[in-house]
Amino acid sequence: MDPGRVSFRPVTESDFPLLGEWLAEPHVRRWWNHDPSPAGVARDFGPGTRGEEAGEDLVALLDDRPVGLVQRSRLEDYAEEFESLAALVEVPSGALTIDYLLGSLDDVGRGIGTAVILALVEDSWTAYPEATAILEAIVVANTASWRALEKAGFTRIGEGELEPDNPVDERLHYLYRLDRPVRP
Q: What residues make up the domain containing 58?
């Protein structure tokens, strides 16, 4: 099934009410441990809209309809995350990391998450020409997330204990990697 055309645009302050709605959804709140209140969203996403963060917060659009939030960053820009991952697996120079959510439960289970990940990967190779790979750590219990990564071509390269985003989760994470394709 072709879910449609996926594109991205930077999060702006005008998106904060929508982000708050998405972060309050039970299927999102379970994995994204963010305060969905206006003050919480402004605290967590405001720095990105003002260029004060090294990473990017992007709204994922499906045929121009906002369907989710994606984040990406160079691992080297976040020393603590880099060191945590490097203690478990090889982290190639220039590696990126991503994160993603679908805001509406109506969009879950329809292939949209995988389509968003695939589009983000392709966009990342263009936006970050020096990137050699994308690494992602997923708490083992988040089956839907790691299955979407696998459907998008990521390979599980290890597992290990990392600090979970949500304190209710176990520390065990699967580690996934996708290398930049070699193009002739």
A: 6-179
